[in-house]
Amino acid sequence: MAIDKTTLAILACPKCKGKLTYYGDKDELVCRGERLAYPIDENIPVLIADKARELSSEELEKVPS
């Protein structure tokens, strides 16, 4: 599932309120500032910090800008 640009523009990281980036390879929304990846479950972003996974430096480099 790809998230359209309008929706992505209004979504924010629940932890830092920063911009999210869609990472299509893993179907996740990524916050670069917090180094967190939020899952997308049945086409619905799960923007709960406790449900996010931490990203390694290597993973973060693979996420498109």
UniProtKB/TrEMBL annotation:
Q: Which residues cross the membrane?
A: none
Gene Ontology CC terms? cytosol
Show the InterPro entries listed in the entry: Trm112-like (IPR005651)
Q: Which PANTHER family match?
A: PROTEIN PREY, MITOCHONDRIAL, ZGC:162634
Instruction: Tell me the protein family, please.
Output: Belongs to the UPF0434 family.
UniProt superkingdom: Bacteria
Source organism per entry reads Idiomarina rhizosphaerae
Instruction: Quote the protein name from its UniProt record.
Output: UPF0434 protein NJR55_11795
